[in-house]
Write a structure and sequence with these properties.
Elements (H helix, E strand, L loop, with lengths): L1 H14 L9 H15 L2 H16 L7 H14 L3 H17 L3 H14 L1
Helix pairs in contact: 1-2, 2-3, 2-4, 3-4, 4-5, 5-6
């Protein structure tokens, strides 16, 4: 299933001509990062999540950012990089609140309460 997902995301990137300015690129990179994370390939997941954030900087879209920040929180938290992890979690909380991602917002906010 992971390989199939990655194939589809690769085809999606082809449609964007591998252009990070393509509006869909940020979301595609995020989805690739999620697949890599689920596969346990954390360094590649981190690479794609950071690439996703860079693409979001060039995009008017914000949908999906909460997931990227949340996964980066999980990655840096697992590396005991507490300050960096908390920074990403706070950004995830901001976007979860802004875009009414109710389920994830509650989870993120409960983690923030424990960290403070």
């Amino acid at each position: 299933a992971y390989d199939t997902a990655l194939e589809h995301y690769e085809k999606s990137l082809e449609l964007c001509d591998y252009n990070e300015d393509c509006p869909a690129a940020a979301l595609i990179f995020s989805r690739i990062g999620q697949v890599k994370f689920q596969q346990g390939i954390i360094s590649e997941a981190q690479f794609y999540f950071l690439k996703s954030l860079k693409a979001y900087e060039n995009s008017v879209f914000a949908w999906g950012r909460v997931d990227v920040y949340y996964y980066l929180y999980k990655i840096y938290s697992s590396k005991n990089m507490v300050v960096k992890a908390k920074n990403y979690l706070e950004k995830a909380s901001f976007y979860a609140n802004k875009y009414a991602c109710d389920e994830l917002r509650e989870h993120i906010n409960s983690i923030l309460i424990k960290l403070n």
